Amino acid sequence: MLAALTLLLLCQLAGEVIAQLSGLPLPGPVIGMLLLFFGLVIRGEVPDALDQAARGLLDHLSLLFVPAGVGVVLHLARVGDEWLPLSAALVLSTLLAIVVTGRIMQRLGRPAADGPKP
Amino acid sequence: MKRGLGEIWVYLAANPLLWLTVTLAAYQAGLWLYRRLGCRPVANPVLLAIILIGALLFATGGSYDDYFAGAQFVHFLLGPATVALAIPLYRQFHRVRRAALPLALAILAGSLSAALSAMGLAWLLGASWRSVISLAPKSVTTPVAMGIAEKLGGLPSLTAVLVILTGIIGASLGPWALRLARIRDPRARGLGLGVAAHGIGTAQAFQDSEVTGAFSSLAMGLNALATAILLPLLFRWAGW
User: Fold this and answer.
1) Which of A19, B30, B35, B91 would bridge with B45, disulfide CB 3.0–4.6 Å?
2) Which residues of chain B have pLDDT under 70?
3) How many CB atoms lie within 10 A of CB B50?
4) How far is B73 from chain A (nearest CA, A)?
5) Which of B142, B134, B125 is nearest to B197 (CA)?
6) Cα–Cα distance for residue pair A85/B128, rounded to 1 Å
């Protein structure tokens, strides 16, 4: 567990360093995700301890967004003034993006061995 | 010496312990309510937790800085959790590789339609230009979106809020939109949720199946990359 957590943090740290050195527009954790991914491809399996640590974090992924979300209290005035354009833009653009992405994938990406579930 | 309740509150409110505990408790209350309401995606636990904590801050006159001093420990875990998304991605990689080209096209189209439609709609409905810019990266995962907003001249902290709201909207209304558009392929469902609603959409996608979740993680990462590259280029080209 401890080793697995250290590994996750090491990947993130390496990701931050690479992001700073290369000037890539990607954040450290996303580069860290790619590093861990390539590590797993080379190793060919997911160690049990890493799997457990990851599960612990990902089971409550949405909890981790609460602190940033509470930041809405800083912008109540602006959100109050512009609630109509902001909420219309958020709702419609989000639904549009889901449907556009999903439709293109479903149309072009014909399922191979495992078909779509009914 | 015994202290009055007021004094104890003053002591605790300046201590990270209080707001860290409040964050965990509010989220669990949100989860409990979500289950009580029959797991309807509209009763999103993140949204419920934000409302609870916001109301508590308002009632006690606490500042966001005080709150964040405690909540930052939870916020910090976003980093390692993002790294951990490599594991479901690795497990589903055989499916990803088989569909590489449609996947890239779908993500690119979704990425552009999310940013452009949000900016266009807000602008048409009379939002201020700063808000329009802050909206542009709203489908991208929080840390990247804040970086993009800063680069474009938006308000990073407003962007963070818009990103979370986008995630909540995508997770709560997304399953309904997918049903309406008859999108049943789990890979397509995952890509849609991940492109439009980043990590919160991905959390919802994992409720569907591991395939949906893995494609959603991948879409979240690739959308962050595409948006971080495309938006600054678009702004430079358009002279905004």
Assistant:
1) B30
2) 1-2
3) 27
4) 9
5) B142
6) 9
pLDDT digits (tens, 9 = 90+) for A2-58: 899 999 999 999 999 998 898 776 778 878 988 999 999 999 999 999 999 999 988
How far is the C-alpha of B31 from the C-alpha of B131, rounded, in Å? 31
Cα separation, A35 vs A13, in Å, equals 11
pLDDT tens digits, one per residue of B111-159: 999 999 999 999 999 999 999 999 999 999 887 888 788 888 898 889 9
In chain B, whose CA is at the least distance from the CA of A78? B131
pLDDT of residue B1: 55
- Give the amino acid at B207: Q
**ipTM score of complex:** 0.85
Pure H helices in chain B: 5-13, 16-36, 45-60, 64-76, 78-84, 86-91, 93-98, 100-124, 129-135, 142-152, 156-180, 186-208, 210-238
* From A25, A61, A90, residue closest to B169, measured CB to CB: A90
CA distance A21 to chain B (A): 16
For chain B, domain boundaries: 5-76, 83-238
Domain limits, chain A: 1-59, 66-109
Pairwise CA distance, residues B240 & B225, whole Å: 21
CB of B197 closer than 8 Å to CB of B162: no
Write down the H helix ranges in chain A: 2-22, 28-43, 48-58, 66-70, 76-81, 83-108
Closest chain B residue to A55, measured at CA: B84
Q: What span, in angstroms and rounded, lies between the C-alpha atoms of A45 and A47? A: 6
Task: Identify the CA nearest to A64 among candidates B218, B65, B142.
Answer: B142
What is the rounded radius of gyration, in angstroms, for the C-alpha atoms of chain A? 20
The whole model's pTM is what? Answer: 0.82
Helix B210-238 vs helix A28-43: crossing angle, to nearest 10? 140
